[in-house]
Amino acid sequence: MKNLLVTGGCGFIGTNFVRYLLSAKCKKTGFNGRIINVDKLTYAGNPFNLAEFEKKYPDRYSFVKSDICDVKAMEGIFDRFKIDSICHFAAESHVDRSIAEPDTFIKTNINGTFTLLELARKNQDRLLLFHHVSTDEVFGSLGNQGFFTEKTPYDPSSPYSASKAASDHLVRAYARTYGLPVTISNCSNNYGPYQFPEKLIPLMILNSFKGKPLPVYGEGFNVRDWLYVADHCRAIFEIMKKGKRGETYNIGGHCEMTNIDVVTRICSMLDEKIPQKNGKPRKDLIRFVKDRPGHDLRYAIDSSKLEKELGWVPEESFDTGLEKTIDWYLDNEGWVKMVIDGEYRKWIEKHYEE
Ligand code: NAD
Ligand code: TYD
Questions:
Q1: Which residues line ligand 1 (CB under 6 A)?
Q2: pLDDT tens track for 107-127
Q3: pTM reported for the whole predicted model
Q4: How many structural domains compose the chain?
Q5: Residue 280 domain-assigned?
Q6: Nearest alpha carbon to residue 255 among 323, 325, 188
Q7: Is 278 part of any domain?
Q8: How far is the CA of 142 from the centre of ligand 2 (A)?
Q9: Which of 37, 42, 107, 239 to mutate to test the pocket of ligand 1 (most atoms within 8 A of CB)?
Protein backbone atom coordinates (compact mmCIF):
# COMPACT_ATOMS: atom_id res chain seq x y z
CA MET A 1 0.00 0.00 0.00
CA LYS A 2 1.95 2.97 -1.31
CA ASN A 3 -0.82 5.51 -1.87
CA LEU A 4 -3.67 4.90 0.54
CA LEU A 5 -6.88 6.89 0.12
CA VAL A 6 -8.58 7.38 3.49
CA THR A 7 -12.08 8.83 3.16
CA GLY A 8 -13.63 10.67 6.11
CA GLY A 9 -10.27 11.05 7.86
CA CYS A 10 -11.37 14.25 9.62
CA GLY A 11 -14.15 12.46 11.53
CA PHE A 12 -13.91 10.52 14.77
CA ILE A 13 -12.62 7.08 13.72
CA GLY A 14 -10.83 8.32 10.59
CA THR A 15 -8.79 10.77 12.67
CA ASN A 16 -7.79 8.06 15.13
CA PHE A 17 -6.93 5.72 12.22
CA VAL A 18 -4.68 8.23 10.43
CA ARG A 19 -2.97 9.07 13.73
CA TYR A 20 -2.42 5.34 14.29
CA LEU A 21 -0.97 4.80 10.80
CA LEU A 22 1.43 7.70 11.23
CA SER A 23 2.56 6.59 14.70
CA ALA A 24 5.99 5.12 15.30
CA LYS A 25 4.36 1.88 16.54
CA CYS A 26 2.57 1.38 13.25
CA LYS A 27 5.66 2.17 11.18
CA LYS A 28 7.24 -0.86 12.82
CA THR A 29 4.26 -3.07 11.99
CA GLY A 30 4.34 -2.30 8.32
CA PHE A 31 2.90 0.95 6.99
CA ASN A 32 5.35 3.25 5.24
CA GLY A 33 3.11 4.56 2.50
CA ARG A 34 1.42 7.88 1.84
CA ILE A 35 -2.05 8.75 3.14
CA ILE A 36 -4.39 10.89 1.08
CA ASN A 37 -7.23 11.98 3.33
CA VAL A 38 -10.37 13.07 1.46
CA ASP A 39 -13.09 14.62 3.55
CA LYS A 40 -16.03 16.90 2.76
CA LEU A 41 -15.75 18.55 6.20
CA THR A 42 -19.39 18.22 7.17
CA TYR A 43 -20.40 19.26 10.70
CA ALA A 44 -18.63 16.06 11.89
CA GLY A 45 -15.31 16.66 10.13
CA ASN A 46 -12.70 18.88 11.74
CA PRO A 47 -9.63 19.75 9.60
CA PHE A 48 -7.62 20.72 12.69
CA ASN A 49 -7.64 17.12 13.98
CA LEU A 50 -4.81 16.22 11.61
CA ALA A 51 -3.51 19.59 10.38
CA GLU A 52 -0.15 19.17 12.17
CA PHE A 53 0.72 16.18 9.92
CA GLU A 54 0.62 18.22 6.70
CA LYS A 55 3.67 20.11 7.98
CA LYS A 56 5.26 17.29 9.96
CA TYR A 57 5.06 14.60 7.25
CA PRO A 58 4.56 16.41 3.91
CA ASP A 59 5.61 13.27 2.00
CA ARG A 60 3.38 10.92 3.97
CA TYR A 61 0.16 12.85 4.57
CA SER A 62 -2.00 15.03 2.30
CA PHE A 63 -5.47 16.41 2.83
CA VAL A 64 -7.98 17.18 0.09
CA LYS A 65 -11.38 18.69 0.85
CA SER A 66 -13.82 16.91 -1.40
CA ASP A 67 -17.19 15.18 -1.50
CA ILE A 68 -16.88 11.46 -2.27
CA CYS A 69 -20.03 11.81 -4.40
CA ASP A 70 -18.25 14.28 -6.72
CA VAL A 71 -17.17 11.98 -9.56
CA LYS A 72 -14.91 14.50 -11.35
CA ALA A 73 -13.11 15.56 -8.18
CA MET A 74 -12.60 11.97 -7.05
CA GLU A 75 -11.38 10.96 -10.50
CA GLY A 76 -8.79 13.74 -10.28
CA ILE A 77 -7.65 12.49 -6.87
CA PHE A 78 -7.28 8.88 -8.07
CA ASP A 79 -5.16 10.05 -11.02
CA ARG A 80 -3.08 12.67 -9.25
CA PHE A 81 -2.14 10.49 -6.28
CA LYS A 82 -2.04 7.12 -8.10
CA ILE A 83 -4.32 5.61 -5.47
CA ASP A 84 -3.59 1.89 -4.98
CA SER A 85 -5.59 1.17 -1.82
CA ILE A 86 -8.63 2.59 -0.06
CA CYS A 87 -9.91 2.63 3.49
CA HIS A 88 -13.43 4.00 3.32
CA PHE A 89 -14.79 5.66 6.48
CA ALA A 90 -16.68 8.67 5.05
CA ALA A 91 -20.34 8.50 6.00
CA GLU A 92 -23.17 10.24 7.74
CA SER A 93 -23.06 8.33 11.00
CA HIS A 94 -25.66 9.47 13.54
CA VAL A 95 -28.88 7.45 13.85
CA ASP A 96 -30.98 10.32 15.28
CA ARG A 97 -29.98 12.62 12.40
CA SER A 98 -30.85 9.87 9.91
CA ILE A 99 -34.35 9.68 11.40
CA ALA A 100 -34.80 13.47 11.16
CA GLU A 101 -33.17 13.95 7.72
CA PRO A 102 -32.35 10.74 5.83
CA ASP A 103 -31.48 12.46 2.53
CA THR A 104 -27.72 12.95 3.03
CA PHE A 105 -27.39 9.41 4.40
CA ILE A 106 -28.62 8.00 1.10
CA LYS A 107 -26.39 10.34 -0.91
CA THR A 108 -23.13 9.89 0.99
CA ASN A 109 -23.41 6.36 2.32
CA ILE A 110 -24.86 4.73 -0.80
CA ASN A 111 -24.06 6.97 -3.79
CA GLY A 112 -20.69 8.00 -2.31
CA THR A 113 -19.66 4.37 -1.86
CA PHE A 114 -20.86 3.60 -5.38
CA THR A 115 -18.71 6.44 -6.79
CA LEU A 116 -15.63 5.08 -5.03
CA LEU A 117 -16.33 1.52 -6.17
CA GLU A 118 -16.66 2.63 -9.79
CA LEU A 119 -13.33 4.49 -9.58
CA ALA A 120 -11.72 1.49 -7.91
CA ARG A 121 -13.01 -0.67 -10.78
CA LYS A 122 -11.66 1.73 -13.41
CA ASN A 123 -8.26 1.66 -11.69
CA GLN A 124 -8.36 -2.06 -10.97
CA ASP A 125 -4.99 -2.76 -12.61
CA ARG A 126 -3.18 -1.03 -9.75
CA LEU A 127 -5.77 -1.56 -6.98
CA LEU A 128 -4.54 -3.70 -4.08
CA LEU A 129 -7.44 -3.25 -1.66
CA PHE A 130 -10.78 -1.55 -1.02
CA HIS A 131 -11.50 -1.79 2.70
CA HIS A 132 -15.03 -0.80 3.65
CA VAL A 133 -15.66 0.31 7.25
CA SER A 134 -19.13 -0.63 8.40
CA THR A 135 -21.25 -1.17 11.45
CA ASP A 136 -22.96 -4.00 13.35
CA GLU A 137 -26.20 -1.99 13.03
CA VAL A 138 -26.75 -3.57 9.59
CA PHE A 139 -27.81 -6.76 11.42
CA GLY A 140 -30.72 -5.03 13.20
CA SER A 141 -31.58 -5.87 16.79
CA LEU A 142 -30.85 -8.90 18.95
CA GLY A 143 -33.17 -10.09 21.71
CA ASN A 144 -31.71 -10.95 25.10
CA GLN A 145 -29.71 -13.90 23.72
CA GLY A 146 -27.18 -14.50 20.95
CA PHE A 147 -24.50 -12.59 19.03
CA PHE A 148 -24.01 -11.16 15.56
CA THR A 149 -21.71 -13.35 13.46
CA GLU A 150 -20.52 -12.69 9.90
CA LYS A 151 -23.38 -14.94 8.75
CA THR A 152 -26.21 -13.12 10.53
CA PRO A 153 -28.78 -11.91 7.94
CA TYR A 154 -29.03 -8.17 7.41
CA ASP A 155 -32.11 -6.54 8.99
CA PRO A 156 -31.42 -2.81 9.45
CA SER A 157 -33.84 -0.63 11.44
CA SER A 158 -32.86 3.02 10.83
CA PRO A 159 -32.16 5.00 7.65
CA TYR A 160 -28.52 5.09 8.82
CA SER A 161 -28.19 1.32 9.18
CA ALA A 162 -30.17 0.69 5.98
CA SER A 163 -27.82 2.99 4.05
CA LYS A 164 -24.77 1.23 5.50
CA ALA A 165 -26.33 -2.16 4.65
CA ALA A 166 -26.83 -0.99 1.05
CA SER A 167 -23.19 0.10 0.84
CA ASP A 168 -21.98 -3.26 2.24
CA HIS A 169 -24.03 -5.08 -0.41
CA LEU A 170 -22.53 -2.92 -3.17
CA VAL A 171 -18.99 -3.61 -1.97
CA ARG A 172 -19.64 -7.36 -1.88
CA ALA A 173 -21.30 -7.25 -5.31
CA TYR A 174 -18.23 -5.50 -6.79
CA ALA A 175 -16.02 -8.23 -5.36
CA ARG A 176 -18.16 -11.03 -6.79
CA THR A 177 -18.96 -9.41 -10.15
CA TYR A 178 -15.74 -7.58 -11.01
CA GLY A 179 -13.25 -9.38 -8.78
CA LEU A 180 -12.43 -6.20 -6.85
CA PRO A 181 -10.08 -6.99 -3.93
CA VAL A 182 -12.25 -5.98 -0.98
CA THR A 183 -12.50 -6.53 2.76
CA ILE A 184 -15.38 -5.38 4.97
CA SER A 185 -15.48 -4.85 8.73
CA ASN A 186 -18.66 -4.53 10.81
CA CYS A 187 -17.86 -3.00 14.16
CA SER A 188 -19.80 -2.32 17.36
CA ASN A 189 -20.18 1.10 19.04
CA ASN A 190 -16.93 3.03 19.40
CA TYR A 191 -15.89 5.61 21.97
CA GLY A 192 -12.71 7.62 22.56
CA PRO A 193 -10.99 10.90 21.63
CA TYR A 194 -12.32 13.15 18.82
CA GLN A 195 -15.90 11.81 18.84
CA PHE A 196 -18.44 14.51 17.98
CA PRO A 197 -20.48 15.18 21.14
CA GLU A 198 -23.81 14.09 19.73
CA LYS A 199 -23.12 10.39 20.42
CA LEU A 200 -23.96 8.91 23.82
CA ILE A 201 -20.56 8.80 25.55
CA PRO A 202 -19.07 12.23 24.69
CA LEU A 203 -22.48 13.89 25.12
CA MET A 204 -22.85 12.43 28.61
CA ILE A 205 -19.25 13.27 29.58
CA LEU A 206 -19.64 16.93 28.57
CA ASN A 207 -23.18 17.39 29.94
CA SER A 208 -22.39 15.80 33.28
CA PHE A 209 -19.16 17.81 33.57
CA LYS A 210 -21.20 21.00 33.12
CA GLY A 211 -24.05 19.87 35.42
CA LYS A 212 -26.51 19.71 32.49
CA PRO A 213 -29.35 17.12 32.18
CA LEU A 214 -28.42 13.66 30.88
CA PRO A 215 -31.15 12.51 28.44
CA VAL A 216 -31.51 8.71 28.48
CA TYR A 217 -33.91 7.32 25.85
CA GLY A 218 -36.76 5.13 27.11
CA GLU A 219 -35.82 3.26 30.25
CA GLY A 220 -32.11 3.03 29.44
CA PHE A 221 -32.17 -0.77 29.08
CA ASN A 222 -30.93 -0.86 25.46
CA VAL A 223 -27.61 -2.66 25.21
CA ARG A 224 -24.57 -1.67 23.13
CA ASP A 225 -21.24 -3.54 22.82
CA TRP A 226 -18.58 -0.85 23.39
CA LEU A 227 -15.11 -0.79 21.83
CA TYR A 228 -12.35 1.74 22.43
CA VAL A 229 -11.54 3.44 19.12
CA ALA A 230 -7.81 2.56 19.15
CA ASP A 231 -8.74 -1.14 19.29
CA HIS A 232 -11.01 -0.65 16.26
CA CYS A 233 -8.25 1.12 14.29
CA ARG A 234 -5.77 -1.65 15.05
CA ALA A 235 -8.32 -4.25 13.93
CA ILE A 236 -8.95 -2.43 10.63
CA PHE A 237 -5.24 -2.29 9.86
CA GLU A 238 -4.79 -5.99 10.70
CA ILE A 239 -7.65 -6.83 8.30
CA MET A 240 -6.13 -4.62 5.60
CA LYS A 241 -2.76 -6.34 5.97
CA LYS A 242 -3.75 -9.94 6.55
CA GLY A 243 -7.50 -10.30 5.93
CA LYS A 244 -8.62 -12.63 3.17
CA ARG A 245 -9.84 -10.67 0.13
CA GLY A 246 -13.60 -10.91 -0.32
CA GLU A 247 -14.15 -11.60 3.39
CA THR A 248 -16.08 -9.83 6.14
CA TYR A 249 -14.85 -9.53 9.74
CA ASN A 250 -16.91 -8.58 12.79
CA ILE A 251 -15.12 -6.37 15.33
CA GLY A 252 -16.30 -6.07 18.93
CA GLY A 253 -15.01 -5.71 22.45
CA HIS A 254 -17.02 -8.31 24.45
CA CYS A 255 -18.29 -5.33 26.37
CA GLU A 256 -22.08 -5.29 26.54
CA MET A 257 -23.56 -2.56 28.71
CA THR A 258 -27.03 -1.07 29.14
CA ASN A 259 -27.18 2.64 28.40
CA ILE A 260 -28.12 3.42 31.97
CA ASP A 261 -25.04 1.55 33.23
CA VAL A 262 -22.82 3.49 30.80
CA VAL A 263 -24.23 6.85 31.92
CA THR A 264 -24.02 5.94 35.61
CA ARG A 265 -20.38 4.83 35.18
CA ILE A 266 -19.51 8.15 33.49
CA CYS A 267 -21.19 10.03 36.37
CA SER A 268 -19.33 8.13 39.08
CA MET A 269 -15.93 8.41 37.31
CA LEU A 270 -16.39 12.16 36.93
CA ASP A 271 -17.57 12.48 40.56
CA GLU A 272 -14.33 10.76 41.67
CA LYS A 273 -12.18 13.06 39.51
CA ILE A 274 -13.97 16.39 39.99
CA PRO A 275 -16.85 16.39 42.50
CA GLN A 276 -19.69 18.81 41.74
CA LYS A 277 -19.50 22.08 43.72
CA ASN A 278 -22.96 21.42 45.20
CA GLY A 279 -21.73 18.05 46.52
CA LYS A 280 -24.49 16.12 44.71
CA PRO A 281 -23.80 12.96 42.68
CA ARG A 282 -24.01 13.51 38.93
CA LYS A 283 -26.39 10.57 38.47
CA ASP A 284 -29.08 12.98 39.80
CA LEU A 285 -28.79 14.70 36.39
CA ILE A 286 -30.20 11.64 34.54
CA ARG A 287 -33.55 12.29 32.82
CA PHE A 288 -35.51 9.54 31.08
CA VAL A 289 -36.82 10.99 27.81
CA LYS A 290 -38.98 9.85 24.89
CA ASP A 291 -37.55 6.76 23.21
CA ARG A 292 -35.93 6.81 19.74
CA PRO A 293 -38.33 5.40 17.07
CA GLY A 294 -37.23 1.95 15.87
CA HIS A 295 -34.68 1.82 18.71
CA ASP A 296 -32.69 -1.44 18.45
CA LEU A 297 -32.76 -3.28 21.78
CA ARG A 298 -29.39 -5.00 21.81
CA TYR A 299 -26.17 -5.29 19.82
CA ALA A 300 -23.52 -7.90 20.67
CA ILE A 301 -20.65 -8.98 18.45
CA ASP A 302 -19.03 -12.37 18.04
CA SER A 303 -15.53 -11.42 16.87
CA SER A 304 -14.05 -14.93 17.12
CA LYS A 305 -13.25 -15.03 13.37
CA LEU A 306 -11.03 -11.95 13.66
CA GLU A 307 -9.48 -13.24 16.88
CA LYS A 308 -8.75 -16.75 15.55
CA GLU A 309 -7.72 -15.89 11.99
CA LEU A 310 -5.83 -12.65 12.53
CA GLY A 311 -4.92 -12.83 16.22
CA TRP A 312 -6.57 -9.52 17.15
CA VAL A 313 -7.83 -8.94 20.69
CA PRO A 314 -8.99 -5.68 22.29
CA GLU A 315 -6.45 -4.08 24.62
CA GLU A 316 -8.74 -1.77 26.58
CA SER A 317 -11.45 -2.72 29.07
CA PHE A 318 -14.47 -0.43 29.35
CA ASP A 319 -13.06 1.16 32.52
CA THR A 320 -9.56 1.84 31.12
CA GLY A 321 -10.97 3.10 27.80
CA LEU A 322 -13.57 5.28 29.51
CA GLU A 323 -10.98 6.81 31.83
CA LYS A 324 -8.76 7.69 28.85
CA THR A 325 -11.78 9.15 27.05
CA ILE A 326 -12.93 11.27 30.00
CA ASP A 327 -9.37 12.55 30.53
CA TRP A 328 -9.09 13.44 26.84
CA TYR A 329 -12.32 15.49 26.89
CA LEU A 330 -11.26 17.25 30.12
CA ASP A 331 -7.80 18.01 28.69
CA ASN A 332 -9.08 19.23 25.33
CA GLU A 333 -11.51 22.01 26.21
CA GLY A 334 -10.33 23.98 23.16
CA TRP A 335 -11.31 21.17 20.78
CA VAL A 336 -14.69 20.78 22.49
CA LYS A 337 -15.40 24.52 22.30
CA MET A 338 -14.34 24.59 18.66
CA VAL A 339 -16.69 21.78 17.58
CA ILE A 340 -19.62 22.91 19.72
CA ASP A 341 -19.38 26.57 18.63
CA GLY A 342 -18.63 25.48 15.07
CA GLU A 343 -15.99 28.26 15.20
CA TYR A 344 -13.76 26.47 12.64
CA ARG A 345 -16.58 26.54 10.06
CA LYS A 346 -15.69 30.18 9.33
CA TRP A 347 -12.07 29.12 8.83
CA ILE A 348 -13.19 26.38 6.40
CA GLU A 349 -15.24 28.91 4.39
CA LYS A 350 -12.20 31.21 4.15
CA HIS A 351 -9.70 28.49 3.22
CA TYR A 352 -11.64 26.33 0.82
CA GLU A 353 -13.68 27.48 -2.11
CA GLU A 354 -16.96 25.60 -2.31
P1 NAD B 1 -18.09 10.72 11.88
O2 NAD B 1 -19.48 11.20 11.64
O3 NAD B 1 -17.37 11.15 13.11
O4 NAD B 1 -17.14 11.11 10.65
C5 NAD B 1 -17.55 11.00 9.31
C6 NAD B 1 -16.57 11.78 8.45
O7 NAD B 1 -16.98 11.62 7.07
C8 NAD B 1 -16.55 13.29 8.73
O9 NAD B 1 -15.24 13.75 8.78
C10 NAD B 1 -17.31 13.89 7.55
O11 NAD B 1 -16.89 15.21 7.24
C12 NAD B 1 -16.95 12.90 6.45
N13 NAD B 1 -17.95 12.90 5.37
C14 NAD B 1 -19.31 12.85 5.48
N15 NAD B 1 -19.89 12.91 4.27
C16 NAD B 1 -18.87 12.98 3.35
C17 NAD B 1 -18.83 13.04 1.94
N18 NAD B 1 -19.95 13.06 1.20
N19 NAD B 1 -17.62 13.09 1.32
C20 NAD B 1 -16.47 13.08 2.05
N21 NAD B 1 -16.46 13.04 3.40
C22 NAD B 1 -17.64 12.98 4.05
O23 NAD B 1 -18.18 9.13 11.80
P24 NAD B 1 -17.34 8.02 12.56
O25 NAD B 1 -18.00 7.72 13.84
O26 NAD B 1 -15.90 8.40 12.52
O27 NAD B 1 -17.60 6.78 11.59
C28 NAD B 1 -16.72 6.49 10.51
C29 NAD B 1 -17.17 5.23 9.81
O30 NAD B 1 -17.21 4.14 10.72
C31 NAD B 1 -18.59 5.32 9.23
O32 NAD B 1 -18.60 4.69 7.97
C33 NAD B 1 -19.45 4.57 10.24
O34 NAD B 1 -20.57 3.99 9.62
C35 NAD B 1 -18.48 3.52 10.73
N36 NAD B 1 -18.71 3.03 12.10
C37 NAD B 1 -18.83 3.89 13.14
C38 NAD B 1 -19.01 3.40 14.43
C39 NAD B 1 -19.13 4.33 15.61
O40 NAD B 1 -19.42 3.86 16.73
N41 NAD B 1 -18.89 5.61 15.48
C42 NAD B 1 -19.08 2.02 14.65
C43 NAD B 1 -18.94 1.16 13.54
C44 NAD B 1 -18.75 1.67 12.28
P1 TYD C 1 -25.49 6.54 19.86
O2 TYD C 1 -24.23 6.99 20.54
O3 TYD C 1 -26.29 7.55 19.11
O4 TYD C 1 -25.09 5.30 18.93
P5 TYD C 1 -26.04 4.25 18.14
O6 TYD C 1 -27.40 4.80 18.05
O7 TYD C 1 -25.37 4.21 16.81
O8 TYD C 1 -25.94 2.96 18.90
O9 TYD C 1 -26.44 5.89 20.95
C10 TYD C 1 -26.00 4.81 21.77
C11 TYD C 1 -27.17 4.39 22.62
O12 TYD C 1 -27.49 5.44 23.53
C13 TYD C 1 -28.45 4.13 21.83
O14 TYD C 1 -29.14 3.03 22.43
C15 TYD C 1 -29.26 5.41 21.99
C16 TYD C 1 -28.84 5.89 23.37
N17 TYD C 1 -28.84 7.37 23.57
C18 TYD C 1 -29.48 7.93 24.67
O19 TYD C 1 -30.11 7.22 25.48
N20 TYD C 1 -29.42 9.28 24.83
C21 TYD C 1 -28.76 10.10 23.96
O22 TYD C 1 -28.77 11.34 24.15
C23 TYD C 1 -28.08 9.50 22.84
C24 TYD C 1 -27.35 10.36 21.85
C25 TYD C 1 -28.14 8.13 22.69
A1: 7-8, 10-14, 39-42, 44-45, 67-69, 89-93, 108, 112, 133-135, 164, 187, 189-190, 196
A2: 999 999 999 999 999 999 999
A3: 0.98
A4: 1
A5: no
A6: 188
A7: no
A8: 16
A9: 42
